[in-house]
Amino acid sequence: MGAAAARALAGEGYRVGILSSSGKGEALAAELGGIGVTGSNQEEADIARLVQAAKDRWGRVDVLVNSAGHGPRGPLLEISDADWHKGMEVYFLNVVRATRLVVPLMEAQGGGAIINISTAWAFEPAAMFPTSAVARAGLAAFTKIFADTYAAKNIRMNNILPGWIDSLPKTDERAASVPMKRYGTSDEIAKTVVFLASDGAGYITGQNLRVDGGLTRSV
Fold first, then answer.
1. d(CA 200, CA 190)
2. What are residue 151's phi and psi, to 5 degrees?
3. Closest by Cα among 101, 115, 119, 117 to 201
4. 5-47, pLDDT tens digit by residue?
5. Three-state secondary structure along 61-96?
6. Could you report the per-residue pLDDT of 117-150, keeping only the tens digit for each?
7. Residue 207's CB: how many other CB atoms inside 10 A?
8. pLDDT above 90 coverage of the chain, percent
9. pLDDT in tens, 153-181
10. Strand order of the sheet with strand 63-67?
């Protein structure tokens, strides 16, 4: 989903900087004419390298997209303290760190948009994704507090809540559980990112947007 978002933003004329742990981000950034850094979103120094590179080349950061990897899973009471902490690192603190680094730039330039790819299970938690659900419920609270604090400075933050997306292994049972009877696509998530980054979403902040084919039941 993160790679698809980078491609979609580049297609809209954004110049992209990509951080990934595998080296694939550097390759994709080179393909898109951007900046790539190999490192971890759990290390503030690695995020800072990307932010500084963007500042040096372009002088600004208009959009930040936080797209995490996968944290620990397991039976609820068998998850160790270390794995709960790891889940917070993967799903929550990655956003906090990157936000802390880009907000001063956004303040100086008069605004910006921060988009976090969260999960449909943040508000309807499932035993399948315990550390994700718990940490991202916290991310929703953080996002609301952030919006209260920075909306007047024209810095917006919103969360995308994907359901079953084709970046995950497909099963007929999962597809059948979705009212639309199919998985979503990474491109659909990417187009949602582009919308939330655009002026068309200029009055949207502090929100959690479900992109799940109607899967979740919350009103």
1. 15
2. -60, -40
3. 115
4. 999 999 999 999 999 999 999 999 999 999 999 999 999 999 9
5. CCEEEEECCCCCCCCHHHCCHHHHHHHHHHHHHHHH
6. 999 999 999 999 999 999 999 999 999 999 999 9
7. 17
8. 96
9. 999 999 999 999 998 889 999 999 999 99
10. 63-67, 112-117, 155-162, 208-211
Comparing CA positions, the residue from 8, 16, 49, 46 lying closest to residue 34 is: 16
104 pLDDT band (50/70/90 cuts)?
Answer: very high
Which residue type, as a one-letter code, is found at position 19? L
Sequence-separated (6 or more) residues with CB below 8 Å from residue 154: 110, 111, 112
Of the candidates 121, 132, 130, the residue with the CA atom closest to the CA atom of residue 164: 121
109-144 as b/e, with b when 16 or more CB fall inside 10 Å?
eeebbbbbbbbbbbbeeeeebbbbbbbbbbbbebbb
Distances (CA, A) of 22 to 5, 18, 37, 102, 207: 17, 11, 10, 23, 31
Please tell me the total number of residues recorded for the chain in this structure: 219
Residues 6+ apart with CB under 8 A from 110: 154
Q: Is the pLDDT of residue 68 over 90?
A: no
CA gyration radius, the chain? 17
* Cβ atoms of 211 and 188 closer than 8 Å: yes
Q: How far is CA 196 from CA 6, 110, 124, 156, in A?
A: 14, 17, 23, 9
Q: Is 14 helix (H, G, I), strand (E, B) or coil?
A: coil
